[in-house]
Amino acid sequence: MKWMEISLTVSREDLDAVSDIFNGFGTGGVVIEDPALIYDVVSGGSEETVAMDISRVDPEAPPRIMGYLPADDGFGSILRGLLDALGSIKRLYSQGVTLREVEDEDWMNRWRDYYHPFRVGSRLLVKPTWEQALAGEDLLVIEMDPGMAFGCGTHSSTSMCMRLLEDIVRGGEYVIDVGTGSGILAITALKLGAAGALAVDTDAGAVRTARENVSINGLSGAIAVKEGNLLEGLDTGADIIVANIVADVILSLIPAAVSLLKRRGAFIASGIIAGRAGELESALAVHGLVIKKVLREGEWAAFLAEKAYK
User: Which domains, and CATH codes, for the chain?
Assistant: First the structure.
C-alpha cells in the first residue's frame, strides 16, 4: 500500500496542536523526530543503545512532525483541508510542508534503521523482534515490532508511562490502555505482573499491530485488543487506566476514566506538552483524581493520579 508522508518543522510549543490537527484529518497518530530527545538518549546511552555519531545531532534544532495518509483518490481534498488547518498556527512553515510517497516497506525499513534494544526504568528492556540482545535475569524483555503504529517506547511520553507502570503495578491488576498504538503499554503492564488488560485504539492498523505484538510476547490469552473510540461503550472496572495520547483527548476522557476506575484506581496520562500541564492538573482535581506523581522530560509531562477513596 502507498502512503503520503506529510512532514514539517514545528516549535515544541506547537507539537500538541499540530498532532491534534493531524489526528483530526485521519492520520491515526504522528511521528515526532526531536533532536533534543535523540541527543539525550544517545549521550546517556547504555550498552544496549545503538552507537551513533552524536556530532551529527543538534539538540537545539526544532522537532519535525510527520503524519501519514493513504495515497488514494481522496488524498488531494484531505490535504487541502489539512493545510488550511495548519495555516492557523502562525509559527509554522519555517521550512514549508514536505510531501513524500512511501510504501509500507519503506516505513518498516526506517524503523529498523533507528530502533534498537534499550532499557526503560530499572527492570524493562525493549527489544525489536529483529535484534538480538542479552538480557540479565533481572530484566523483563518486551518484544516489539511497531509497524505503522505509534508508541515503541523511545519517545518520552511512552517511556514515562512505562516507568509509572513500573512504580504502581503490584500484581493482579486489570489495566485499560487507551490509544494503545503498538500495544507496548498493555504489554508492559502484563510483564510487570498485571493479570489482564484491554488495549483500545481507533485505528485498524494499530489494532492489527498491537495484536501481533501481544502474540509475539505470548500474552494473547491475557490482553484483549479492540478497535474502538477511547472508553466509549466500556463497562468493565479497571485498577489502572493509561492514556498516552494528546492533551485535548485526555481532557475529554477523564470523566469516563473516573467512572470506570475502581476505588483507589490509578490514572496515568501522558503525551502532555509542558505548556498544558497546568490545564490537565486542574481537570484531574475537578474530577476527584489526586495527583500522586508527575514526571517531566524535556517539553513533555506525564501524570499519575489516584481516584479518591469515597
Answer: 2-110 (3.30.70.260), 149-307 (3.40.50.150)
